[in-house]
Amino acid sequence: MSGQANLDGLCRSLEDYGQKNGIGVPNPSSGAAAHLSDSLYLAHSTSGEKFSDICGSGYLASAARLAAARSQPLAPGGAEVVLGTAGSVFFYVSPFRYPNTGCGFLFAKTLESDRSDDGVATPFDSGGLLKVFTRLDAAEPPRAFLSRHELPIPEHRRYLGLSMEVLFDKPEDYIEGLEPRLPGPIGLTGGDHRRWTHEVRIPDRVPVRDSHLQAVFAPRSRVAADREVEDLFQWCVGKGTDRILFDTPHENDFEALRQECLEYIRGKLY
Amino acid sequence: MATPWNLDDLEIVGYADVLKETMLPSVVPPVFRLKTDAQRAFLPPYSFNAGFLCNATEVPRSELEELRDSREITLFDNAFPARAGFELWVDQSFQWHYQRLDEVKRKLRAIAEEAIRNAEDALRRDDRQQAERLSGVAISADDRRVEPLAIKAAIRRIQRNSTGERLMAELAAPVMEERLFNLLVDDYCASQEQSTPAVPASSPRRPMRGVARMPVAA
Questions:
Q1: From the first residue on, what is the mean pLDDT of each consecutive set of 10 residues in chain B (218 residues)?
Q2: CA distance A110 to A268
Q3: Does A251 contact B170 at a Cβ distance shorter than 8 Å?
Q4: Quick check: is B204 in a domain?
Q5: Could you give the ipTM of this predicted complex?
């Protein structure tokens, strides 16, 4: 089934789901849900070491590309290998949500429009399908489940807007990471907010020094101490790209990054 | 909410980061496991409260190996007991230490102090590469010190990189107001100019200039 057919089917099942639960579903979504789903950024966060490499190379690269560059095979049991997604660069359409990371990039929605021919989205974190989330039909192979939910970009934002409106108390709750009021028609349980966070995958690599780059987040000390990181921030100064510098408590760098990103998105989109 | 764990019941198997040279020295968040069950490990984000590890993410041992292979954590060859009031840090030669909080602070401050002194000397000698490297060490050791940022800003000014100089002022802004920061940068630039024997070809060489730095003949 094509991505567009998946999207139409998913939107229909969400409308049916809303009606069964006594909720009227405006399609397309309206007001805040439409605005937020249409303008939300693509987030990619990473560790300090990888961030420095990305700044140096100028690209976000897929696991497969990085492994090839190191002449090392990918672990055969890894989620990306099992699901066939190792050739992609991953983003969440949300604030940073990948734990144990301390630096990150936000890209504008225009990246999706630019890569609509080869990029794809799912209305959940695909990596969670293997060990974290529980599916209604455990017998269905994870790869088949993933394929049934692959949606075109940026059109997947239509389903995002509808789900913000139908499943959450208010659309902002999706961004804040608050649990939805209703689980929705997809049938996943378990795990955390990544169960309902939209994921976008773009093949191979994505340039960083590019007009789609919306903002860069890094601890102040990283920018000051690492020449590769400093050079990227200098590029951002020259281009007027937003630069978010912050201090981190050492046992909780991710929480500092997450909070900075939330503050940024609230300031820009609410 | 995740169960709080008494640190006396835990041991440290690594840290939740992978470091490169420009990130050293660095305080790092430990990866813990239960002393009584090596299959149960705990990752950040977490917090400490009265000798307990709170809100940690529990993962099986197999996931630790996956995270190590994907360069997200570093695992030690041997585990050692966790202790309340202690902090894990890695020095400039990638050697890890597990010491009392106050001792770690003291050591990192001393490393920053020495690195700043040596960076200032290197800048005076016009060894900019060394001055930059040492400034990075000082910032990694103590990110509240403003001198390394001013040294780097001075280097950017000497390189006529005004964007780089402006970025350093932006980094220093939470610690020092811009006017004072610029004075400090002026001072570092002046110290470098005074000690660099850069005499333009068109200028007559002043008598005795540089003589004080010449080695005394035997």
A1: 89 96 94 96 92 92 88 95 97 97 97 98 96 97 96 98 97 95 97 67 39 36
A2: 16
A3: no
A4: no
A5: 0.88
CA atoms within 13 A on the CB side of B149: 27
pLDDT digits (tens, 9 = 90+) for A196-247: 999 999 999 999 999 999 999 999 999 999 999 999 999 999 999 999 999 9
From B34, B64, B94, give the residue that closes a domain.
B94
pTM check: above 0.80: yes
Whether residue A245 lies within 8 A of chain B, CB to CB, comes out as yes
Q: How far is B193 from chain A (nearest CA, A)?
A: 24
Q: Which domain holds residue B60?
A: 5-94
**For residue B15, what are the β-bridge partners?**
B30, B74
Number of domain units in chain A: 1
To the nearest whole Å, the CA of B122 is away from the closest chain A CA by 17
Selection from B85, B112, B89 nearest residue B101 by Cα:
B85
Which of B10, B22, B31, B63 to mutate against chain A (most A CBs within 10 Å)? B22
Do B66 and B146 share a structural domain?
A: no
> Total structural domains in chain B?
2
Asked if B10 and B40 sit in the same domain, the reply is yes
Residues B90 and B117 in one domain: no
Tell me, yes or no, if A220 comes closer than 8 A to chain B by beta carbon. yes
Residue B212 in domain? no
Nearest to A192 by CA among A100, A258, A99, A102: A99
